[in-house]
Specification:
Layout (H helix, E strand, L loop, with lengths): L10 E2 L8 E5 L2 H5 L7 E6 L15 H18 E11 L1 E4 L2 E4 H10 L4 E9 L14 E8 L43 E3 L4 H4 L2 E2 L19 H11 L5 E4 L6 H8 L3 E6 L2 H16 L37
Parallel strand pairs: 1-2, 2-12, 3-4, 3-11, 7-9, 9-10, 11-12
Antiparallel strand pairs: 4-8, 5-6, 7-8
Helix pairs in contact: 2-3, 5-6, 6-7
Amino acid sequence: MDDVLNEYHSIQEQFNANAHIVICQGDALARLRQLPENTFKLVVSSPPYNIGKAYEKQTSLDDYIEWQKDIIREMLRITDQEGSIVWQVGNYVDAGEVFPLDIYFYPLFKELGMRLRNRIIWHFDHGLHASKRFSGRYEVLLWFTKSDHYTFNLDAVRVPSKYPGKLHYKGEKIGQPSGNPLGKNPSDYWQIISNEWETGRIEIPNVKSNHPEKTEHPCQFPVELIERCVLALTNEDDWVLDPFGGVGSSVIAAIKHNRRGMMIDRDASYNKLAKERVNAFQNGTLKIRPLGKPVHQPTGKEKVAKIPELWLGQNQGQLL
């Protein structure tokens, strides 16, 4: 059992300021228009990528961006004055040409007056293999704030310093530790957690078939990716919203840290699965990857880590 909440909260299907968990089925834009303004301290999501997944309708890039404009305008309206929007996006690929979606999204937020605080690179080691270009192994989190006065809890997400014993070598603090006793800023490059101590980077694997959180959703958020955002950009009892909630990972990340969580998704099967996962989390039976757990590193003795006999004449050890 991974986590058990001190208090069990019922799941509501419509927003209620006194609720703790809301899982709402419906069209994202229509539901956003029903929500009160200046309410959510954090709006975080990975919008449908428009790449022909089973749960998406493939349209032109121009139509996709135009649709997202209305979504973003409503998200800004409902975001708290000291709140943030974190938009996690990848690439749109058409006929082999790559269109980085973060480049298209930036001006949509900027023209509404939002401030970009970080463009966070989320690197992972697994994904689709390309044959006519380099395989994509990162996505981007755009962190915008609604104003210049915003919630940011750096201490909650610090990582261990590489050299905690480093001292000031001059000035008034000469001889004193130069770092922070709570650790260092994790930077804007988030990778897989296996060597976080050495690199000072936050490391988070994507959700693939062997990930403990894997469900039927094809583009599932890892809970720990959202946990960092929740811990850094909200306080306890604040509201967190995911307008494309999928199977509820953002809600789980919110309630795990004593925040209030809401998600919207048009797919009835995903809403059902999200409710099951949230209830399982509250019961302590949901398998989730613990925050900061090291990722398995092969020893070289595993069969899958050895070079197949058929490849022995093309030794990968000689590759750059």
